[in-house]
Design goal:
By secondary structure, the protein is an all-alpha fold. The protein is built from 13 helices and three strands; from the N terminus they run βααββααααααααααα. A three-stranded antiparallel β-sheet has the order 1-3-2. A hairpin with a 5-residue loop joins β2 and β3. α7 crosses α8 and α10 packs across α13. The protein is globular and about 65 Å long. The termini are far apart. 20% of the residues are buried.
């Protein structure tokens, strides 16, 4: 039966070899064999399982939940059929999100009054899973996802409102031209750092991680739009970098 080396599987899936080895360590995906030199190889059975893993991961499910869902055997054709159904479900959700974003854009361009909740309705935080995994590793995302999974509906609502409140305060400070190095903006950044720590389930963002986050706010147009445009995002990044210099080694 055909087999593919780990580097080819990594290249084809967009995963890293480190991630595939992590999946092996936690028992989620084992290679079909390991050569005497330590090279991992994957056959069709393993690729079928990996396909299902990626399909479920695309739904932002924690790895522990995915592992439980993979207990039953399934062919590659069945995995693809299931994935197609999930994609169609996501398509419908995306259409709803596009409608919300268009409504927001129409209101903003025409000068209509909107609440802050209206503005953020079209912003899907889950879309940033790839950035979190790539920049800070799978553990950062898994801890965050597990944290939210364990919350009640009331806790989730309160958590979401806190996210809105934190980001709204940053947006308003930037839009008002508040000095990024001043006490007011720096106090907001301190609150933001605490919020990120909670969101990452207790993993305190160090200098490298928090700097990377500040750069992401400017580099990713979705974040810039959330903060009211590129200029505001740059002001928030500047404030974060002042705070980093003063508070993180």
């Amino acid at each position: 039966m055909p087999e593919w080396p780990i580097k080819d599987v990594a290249r084809a899936t967009g995963l890293t070899s480190r991630t595939l080895r992590h999946y092996e360590q936690i028992g989620l995906l084992h290679p079909s064999r390991v050569a005497h030199n330590g090279y991992r190889f994957y056959g069709e059975t393993e690729l079928s399982r990996l396909y299902r893993i990626l399909s479920l991961r695309a739904l932002e499910l924690p790895l522990a939940t995915i592992q439980n869902a993979l207990e039953d055997d399934e062919t590659l054709a069945e995995a693809i059929t299931t994935h197609l159904a999930l994609l169609e479900e996501r398509r419908d959700r995306t259409i709803q999100q596009i409608t919300a974003v268009r409504h927001t854009l129409d209101a903003v361009t025409k000068g209509k009054s909107m609440t802050i909740k209206d503005i953020f309705d079209g912003f899907d935080q889950s879309q940033h899973e790839a950035e979190v995994r790539e920049r800070w590793g799978d553990d950062a995302w898994e801890r965050s996802a597990k944290r939210r999974e364990q919350m009640s509906e009331d806790q989730l609502q309160a958590d979401g409102q806190r996210s809105v409140d934190i980001n709204t305060a940053l947006r308003e400070a930037a839009a008002a031209g508040v000095d990024p190095s001043g006490a007011r903006f720096q106090s907001l950044i301190a609150a933001h750092h605490r919020w990120v720590t909670e969101y990452w389930a207790g993993r305190v963002p160090d200098r490298t991680a928090y700097t990377g986050l500040s750069e992401l706010y400017v580099a990713d147009a979705r974040f810039a739009a959330t903060y009211g445009g590129q200029q505001n995002a740059e002001a928030i990044r500047e404030a974060m970098q002042f705070w980093i210099e003063a508070n993180l080694d």
